TrEMBL record:
PANTHER family registered for this protein in UniProt: D-XYLOSE-BINDING PERIPLASMIC PROTEIN, L-ARABINOSE-BINDING PERIPLASMIC PROTEIN
Segments forming domain Periplasmic binding protein/LacI sugar binding: 29-310
Name recorded for this polypeptide: L-arabinose-binding periplasmic protein
N-terminal signal peptide: 1-25
Organism: Verminephrobacter aporrectodeae subsp. tuberculatae
Key words of the record: Periplasm, Signal, Sugar transport, Transport
Length: 330
């Protein structure tokens, strides 16, 4: 046998040897999980729990960060090229709704959304796409109620308190969350004139820091502060802005929404900060359950429920471990 032939046989052997598992891998379902802000701990947790579903069921999870509209569309084409069967997405802008639905259709991909619900050209939710979100208004109300009770405990005079509403109103779930908080504060007698709107350009801590800083500078008369927004990052931005202006931890009450690493890091600091608490929501339901639902849809044709809204629980420094355990998100 010539060495050339030997080499050929080796090559053939290698490729045959790989043929088995490679063919199997081609059969396993492929599911995309696209998120708008991959660096945010909430989305990292969603991915982590979706991976758990992938391991249990033996499908391949394709995780892609999609911070812009063009990246969303490219990622969907990419999934199509990889012959994925479906994907779950949290879009960077809900107005991409019709484009995302069309792209998914072109690539024959099943589509589910998580966290942020797609809207059509008229701004109406696209009800045909199965969605899992949080019960935003209720969770916001819990934020507002927690703040109002804590103001009461600290014995602050309401007229001396400024409320920073870190807002991102172009995202319906964000607006519902802050509307909920305002509803509870108002019910508790909080003066509407003391609620300051601080619109953030992006839903991250830095944008919230900038927005809150402007609102505080414009309103120097307040002795105490409270802060709320769509997530923990928004509230952390406001708390950091207050600290930067010399506001002590005892003079500000920030209550976020999320409860993942951003909040836990804050609770782990040796000194109490102005970040008083958060409403813990479930990345397990949003990651594991959506991935499972997509898998079942692909495997057995069982379409997921059209709308699931998940609940939250108040978590503070004192009960963080217990609340997380209860919610199964350790
Ligand atoms: C939105 C927010 C995230 C998280 C999620 C449930 O997408 O931007 O921070 O709160 O809803």
């Amino acid at each position: 046998m010539t060495s050339k032939m030997q080499r050929l046989l080796v090559l053939l052997g290698v490729s045959l040897g790989l043929g088995g598992p490679a063919a199997q891998a081609a059969d396993e379902p492929k599911i995309g999980f696209l998120v708008k802000q991959a660096e945010e701990p909430w989305f990292q947790d969603e991915w982590k729990f979706a991976e758990q579903a992938a391991r249990e069921k033996g499908f391949k999870l394709i995780k892609i960060g999609v911070p812009s509209g063009s990246e969303v569309l490219t990622a969907i084409d990419n999934l199509g090229a990889q012959q994925a069967q479906g994907f779950i997405i949290c879009v960077p802008d809900v107005k991409l709704g019709s484009a995302v639905v069309a792209k998914a259709g072109q690539n024959k991909l099943k589509l589910m959304t998580v966290d942020d619900r797609l809207v059509d050209g008229a701004g109406k939710p696209i009800e045909s796409v199965p969605h899992m979100g949080i019960s935003a208004q209720k969770i916001g109300e819990l934020v507002g109620k927690t703040i109002a009770e804590e103001i009461g405990k600290r014995g602050w005079k309401l007229e001396e308190v400024g409320a920073i509403r870190v807002s991102y109103d172009q995202l319906p779930t964000a607006k519902e969350r802050t509307d909920g908080a305002i509803a509870s504060l108002t019910r508790a007698g909080f003066p509407g004139a003391n609620i300051l709107n601080a619109p953030q350009a992006k839903t991250d801590t830095e944008a919230a820091f900038n927005a809150a800083g402007i609102a505080m500078t414009k309103n120097p008369k307040f002795k105490y502060w409270v802060a709320f927004g769509l997530n923990d990052e928004a509230v952390l931005g406001a708390v950091r802005a207050a600290e930067g202006r010399g506001v002590k931890a005892g003079q500000i009450i920030g209550v976020g929404i999320g409860g993942s690493k951003s909040a836990l890091n804050e609770f782990a600091k040796p000194m109490v900060t102005g970040f008083f608490g958060t409403v813990l929501i479930s990345p397990k339901r949003h990651g594991y359950e959506t991935a499972m639902n997509m898998y079942e849809w692909i495997k057995s044709g069982k379409e997921p429920e059209k709308l699931i809204l998940t609940a939250g629980s108040l978590m503070t420094r004192d009960n963080a471990a217990a609340v997380r355990k209860e919610m199964g998100v350790e």
